[in-house]
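Predict the structure of Sulfatase N-terminal domain-containing protein.
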Amino acid sequence: MILCCFCSLLSCKTNEGKEENSSNVAEISKKPNIIYILTDQWRGTALGYAGNPDVKTPHLDALAKESVNFTNAVSVTPVCTPHRAALLTGKFPTTTGMFLNDIYFPAQEVTMAELFKDQGYQTAYWGKWHLDGHGRSSYIPKERRQGFEYWKAIECSHNYTKMPYYDNDNPKLKHWDTYSPFAIVNDVNQYITDHASDEQPFLAFVSIATPHYPHGSAPKKYKDLYPPEKLTLNPNISEEFKEKARIELQGYYAHATATDEAIGRLLDKMEELELFDNTIVIFSSDHGEMMGAHGVKPFVKQLAWDEAARVPFLIRYPSIRKHKGKIVNAPLTTPDILPSLLGLTDIAIPEDMEGENLSQLIKNPNIHQDRAALIMNVAPFGSNFKDQPYRAIRTKQYTYAVTPDGPTMFYDNTNDPFQQNNLLGKPEFQEIQKDLDTQLKQQLQHIRDSIRPRNYYMKKWKYKFDDKRNAIDWRSWNKGKGTVQSPQSLVIN
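Done. Here is the predicted structure for Sulfatase N-terminal domain-containing protein.
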């Protein structure tokens, strides 16, 4: 009897060990899928869940209740190419040289797709890329896709009614047959349906170009929801831009609502396929836009004011449970995103990655925690050419910015959410300003950066602007005369 009991106990322990080992193997072999939804020019305040009284975003409002919401997420450089490069590398624009639109992202940089691909992930990309620097409609061959395998993308287009794209390795230009957010999501839904049961996880990067202008091209059905005369204008919109802002907001919100509906279709498909239990979902944007605030005309970005720099950031992950709907007020900046995703998926973070791994804050949201998130514009271009370069930090309460000529911004965003009262030099805030200045210097020291004039960086990276538009010349590619501009130290000829 004793022998039988011993054998039985041994058998149980052996089976427990087998089950445990089996569970460990399953965990190792099947990491969570990742769906990253990146929109374009979507301000952090232009959502129902963010308290906007006008815009209708029911699907994203529902996602916010299921996610951790970073209320003070900022774009490291509030414009397309720099944000995307920082997102894919976890590095700051001054380190990679990717601080302008329409420059080429060198293949030598290790990217999000390559890191996850090395861990067995299938990788897929849809929509706007804006990292190739070979003109905005040129075919992007596989070796320039930074590790993404499945590919239905275009360098840059904002023709939402007939958006062009390239289908994987077919060099012939195609066009989506309907409003691009809907068309792209339809293809994404087919992809995740095809791969939902695969042993390999997938990284699906869904880059939707709305609600970026042109705002007038939003479908009429959605524009009719927003009569311009009934829209709420923020108190910091200058008198000269109020009428223009109403007109643009109509189309802006219409694109936002239509895009929300497209994202809702993706979320519905995920639920149908029962993917939420093993998928990380992120919704964010590359930057916002000024829309007439502070006397800056609609469409303009690149600036440290919240309208341009603050973006939405929702993240839902498999074990979120009791943390659904939790708020994080500690700011997050673009280079923090990739190391945080690596942290959430237990993948080693490369030593040269500069962003902070915030995975513990994501898994244990703390509304009171604070940190300093870096924002910068190294070389203002285009509509911002006359602006000064700057470095800035965003804490959960303050924005503080410095140009080569000295401090320019100091706002208490908690008590002055529209940033109308600049506190620079006020005696009662002297100690806070001093502390913010120290924090900014520490952030710059961490990435070996300093605040210098634009020409210093243009010379360092050997960039040259088009004399007419004060930006990188991408239009000459349409005439067969384009020139690649890229961070020279990383290019192998």
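The chain is about 30% helix and 15% strand.
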